[in-house]
Amino acid sequence: MQRGNQRNQTVAVGGAQFAKLEQDASVLRKAERSNTMPVTFRRGDIALKKEDQEQLEENQKQLAGRVRRGSVQLSQTTSEQLSSHWESCDFIKLHVHGKQSDNTTDNKPGAEREGVLFRLREPKVLYDDYGFFYSCTKGAKGYNDTSSNQDNFSFTVYGDYSISIVMDGHGPCGHRVSARCVQTIPYYLTRSEDWLKDIPKALKDAFASASTDLIGYAIENDVDVQASGSTCVLFMINTKTGDWYTANVGDSRVVIGYENEKDVVFETLDHKPSVEAEKKRIEASNGEIRTLTYDDFSVDRIFVKGTDYPGLCMSRSFGDECVKPCGVTSEPEIATNVGNKTNQKIDLLKNPFVVIASDGVWEFIESSWCIKAIVKKLSSEPADRVVQKLAKESRRRWKLEEGDYCDDITVCLLQLGKTQK
Prior knowledge:
Layout: E1 8-11, H1 50-69, H2 79-88, E2 92-98, E3 115-118, H3 124-130, E4 132-137, E5 151-158, E6 161-170, H4 174-190, H5 199-221, E7 229-238, E8 244-249, E9 253-258, E10 266-267, H6 276-284, E11 287-293, E12 298-304, E13 310-312, E14 318-319, E15 333-336, E16 352-357, H7 359-362, H8 367-378, H9 383-402, E17 409-415
Antiparallel strand pairs: 1-3, 2-3, 2-5, 4-17, 5-6, 6-7, 7-8, 7-14, 8-15, 9-10, 9-16, 11-12, 12-13, 16-17
Helix pairs in contact: 4-5
């Protein structure tokens, strides 16, 4: 399926080969989950009360008022400028990101998100030349759910560097947040004054610029960013030297392994309210952390003190402006092997691979299990099928644990043993 010219296309990966989620009315959950909190999916978004929704709408109006007063600027980056950057920047070899669509057909459980391609005619180039494989499938927030897939992804090759990003949106406009930031983060990163000079600083600046851009974009396009937001995890590597970097906010995760070993080489740390350092920052900023307890598990959520919103279950994110004063930040945690002896340079001769995935995978799958499973499968099956099977296994575990509820699931696999061009 083409979009525009041959250098910029929209393609679907997977299609019928991705099994749709089964919906069984007999397993629909009807019991009340908690007597002390607003109605909520156990692992999903809090259902806001009317008065809380009205307060968040007022917060959004006040944010728009700051534009008129000049303390907040509207986004200066248009969709046309983003596309032009991918097409015309001399050092960018290719770029792909997930297409945002509000089409009901695209929002059926199990539907695969299409990719928008720049500087390549077909995704086969991603596989054969760069070892990048992806699957981004719609989950099910309940029986006959047709809400938007809130996950998104991007992959950018700039000179000898490849940049992989996965984002997992939440809230009423989470799909808009992830669709915007998955493009603006690599855009601001590769345009940074510190790009290739001080990459950790360039990464932090890019996240900050994308966060600021998001506010202006939201006001200009009537997108809620009070109780809507997104996690983000980024993996970047110099495919000639093996030097690598990660930057993450929230609970999407990067995991690194080798094809002939079964150990986790590295994994990013999830940002949850239960993590002591995160908890201290939230509570020092007057945020309130409450534990929602169910029969079989409990989850910590962040609230504006004295209210029942937003019930955020991660301590760092893009958007979620109502809890930014409460210590929730979009500043990423950076990890790198450069100048850090505890994180070794990736040995490109040992066929390393990287899994970049949303919480839809990690909710019920441990990093160690993931690495072992991929090592086992890659020895006998093509990588695209391995990605499909990991996504399918994630859906199977959601079915076992949560019945009709399944998160959106994004799996990106980067095989660094492939020839890089």
